[in-house]
TrEMBL record:
Span of domain Aldehyde dehydrogenase: 11-462
Gene Ontology molecular function terms on file: succinylglutamate-semialdehyde dehydrogenase activity
Protein name as annotated: N-succinylglutamate 5-semialdehyde dehydrogenase
Reaction catalysis annotation: N-succinyl-L-glutamate 5-semialdehyde + NAD(+) + H2O = N-succinyl-L-glutamate + NADH + 2 H(+)
Primary role: Catalyzes the NAD-dependent reduction of succinylglutamate semialdehyde into succinylglutamate.
Species classification: Bacteria, Pseudomonadati, Pseudomonadota, Gammaproteobacteria, Alteromonadales
Keywords, alphabetical: Arginine metabolism, NAD, Oxidoreductase
Recorded metabolic or biological pathway in which this protein acts: Amino-acid degradation; L-arginine degradation via AST pathway; L-glutamate and succinate from L-arginine: step 4/5
Native source organism of the sequence: Alteromonas naphthalenivorans
Family statement: Belongs to the aldehyde dehydrogenase family. AstD subfamily.
Length: 489
């Protein structure tokens, strides 16, 4: 029996079709199950609804006491969970260990955010007092992506539960095993039945959950394509809260820098970490069309060629592991071919050495001469597009020439240049002389345009997990000393 769904505190077998999860580095099946049927999704939503009043009536301290036990369980399971994540995503174990670390850190950060952003405020009034308090929405669905199968859904689930919501979690169908391991830790922490439910499945599971009448909100991290479908689906439901964290076509501009190796380091960290599978990864690199730009590009090509790529569990750990699947790697080869067909010049070819596995070597392509043809797409893998520019204004203008707006960066030694850039660039994350990946959970995280819907996550997730309630209160019903004109009592 494959008990892969967690509904109302019980592990149950799916009634839908077969699901498998494949280790993309070794091309081995590592998990098998069945998707949730529509009636199981219905049961999960109903369980979350039934659990909501009691969970919401606990004090936040009572809820936090259970959530902190989950944090301890994460600590105890850290090595195991990091290995499961590496096996299922192909990411090197050093990197998945940092992902589990981020999941643990999320608890204290979300507690702080809850009190700072949605805590209670009391103000004196001429008569009585005014209060601002926050209440949970009720039942929320959480959708996770594959690239951070623990950290990103955890970043919705923890603040949602702190605020008093109950949750139905639908992970990526490419990472069901990580989701299962994570939910087991919540179970071990003693979370009451129905407070967190797990339903596994592909697109149709997502559609059934997103369109279920019983949810009060949906917190989504994934592609802009899916996010837009959800946005359309939520149209006409103003009472439901929808938080969308989506992709990007992120620009990184290099201006005048003395330390070329420092710049190359930040470019590589921005473009190729996680094999380019971070929403914040640099997709478009702007280099000056001068000798310094030539030197930076030459060094970038040299360093990128030498990036170590290997299995997630290699003793000598690589910088890059496999992508999530053989298909994902093949789609990057195809994206490169398409850009080449439009006039892009490959400077370092992205290759998939084994079509049965998810490995893709990092690629760099010069697209300067085909800018008018350049599709405004997120290529979610290790393919960096280079644009050579002659003046800073045109580079910034082209950097903003995207419907997305997640992250952006400037590598330049002049603070004045940064201020100029900051004032003009349009993105939710804007960095200076630092990689544009690796955002902090202690800051808001989100983008504009097709990158999100202005409901930033991370520290600001507290905002979409609760709604504010304004009250004026007086202990006893009392006749006011001064009555409104025309009123006698
Ligand atoms: N901004 C961020 O915080 C952030 C973080 C990580 C990843 N991402 C983005 O996520 C993408 C990669 O993740 P992914 O491929 O797993 O995303 P995805 O959009 O394919 O899937 C995300 C989730 O939505 C579900 N889903 C897919 N189609 C659906 C539909 N029609 N209706 C309802 N649910 C549906 C999936 O099963 C999964 O659970 C990239 O675009 C990346 O930029 C964004
Ligand atoms: O792939 C998208 C996430 C990338 C990651 N961002 C965060 O971890 C945001 C912080 C948080 O959600 O707590 C990154 O910037 O590398």
């Amino acid at each position: 029996m494959l008990h892969t769904h967690f509904i109302d505190g019980q592990w149950v077998t799916g009634e839908g079709h077969d699901l498998t999860s494949i280790d993309p580095a070794k091309n081995q099946v590592i998990w098998e199950g069945k998707s949730a049927s529509p009636s199981q999704i219905d049961l999960a939503v109903k369980a979350a609804r039934a659990a909501a009043p009691a969970w919401g009536m606990l004090t936040v301290e009572e809820r936090l006491s259970i959530i902190k036990v989950y944090g301890e369980k994460l600590g105890e399971a850290k090595a195991h969970l990091a290995k499961v994540m590496a096996k299922e995503t192909g990411k090197p174990e050093w990197e998945t260990a940092t992902e589990v670390g981020a999941m643990m850190g999320k608890i204290a950060i979300s507690e702080k955010a809850y009190f700072e952003r949605t805590g209670n405020v009391e103000n004196p009034m001429p008569v009585g007092k005014a209060f601002i308090r926050h209440k949970a929405h009720g039942v929320v669905a959480v959708f996770g992506p594959y690239n951070f199968p623990g950290h990103l859904p955890n970043g919705h689930i923890v603040p949602a539960l702190i605020a008093g919501n109950t949750v139905v979690f639908k992970p990526s169908d490419l990472t069901p095993m990580v989701a299962e391991e994570m939910v087991k830790l919540w179970e071990q922490a003693g979370l009451p039945a129905g407070v967190l439910n797990l339903v596994q499945g592909e697109v149709e599971t997502g559609k059934a959950l997103a369109s279920h009448n019983g949810i009060d909100g949906l917190f989504f991290t994934g592609s802009s394509r899916t996010g837009k479908i959800l946005h359309e689906q939520f149209a006409g439901h103003p009472g439901k809260i929808l938080a969308l964290e989506m992709g990007g076509n992120n620009p990184l501009i290099v201006k005048d820098v003395a330390d070329i190796d420092g710049a190359v380091h930040d470019i590589v960290q921005s473009a190729f970490i996680t094999s380019g599978q971070r929403c914040t990864c640099a997709r478009r690199l702007f280099l000056p069309a001068n000798a310094q730009g030539d030197a930076t590009l030459a060094r970038l090509l040299e360093v990128t060629k030498n990036i170590k790529i290997d299995d997630y569990d290699a003793e000598d750990q690589p910088f890059m592991g496999a992508m999530i699947s053989a298909n994902a790697a093949a789609s990057m080869v195809k994206a490169q071919q398409d850009l080449e067909a439009l006039g892009g010049k490959v400077l370092l070819r992205l290759e998939q050495p084994d079509t049965q596995k998810g490995f893709a070597t990092p690629g760099i392509i010069d697209v300067t001469d085909m800018l008018s043809e350049l599709p405004d797409e997120e290529h979610f893998g290790p393919l960096l597009k280079v644009i050579r520019y002659t003046d800073f204004d045109s580079a910034i203008e082209e950097a903003n020439n995207t419907s997305f707006g997640l992250s952006a960066g400037l590598l330049a030694d002049s603070e004045e240049d940064y201020r100029y850039f900051f004032a003009r660039i349009r993105a939710g994350i804007v960095n200076w002389n630092r990689p544009i990946t690796g955002a902090s959970s202690a800051a808001p995280f989100g983008g504009i345009g097709e990158s999100g819907n202005h409901r930033a996550s991370a520290f600001y997730a507290a905002d979409y997990c609760a709604f504010p309630v304004a009250s004026v209160e007086l202990e006893k019903v009392t006749l006011p000393g001064k009555l409104s004109p025309g009123l006698t009592l």
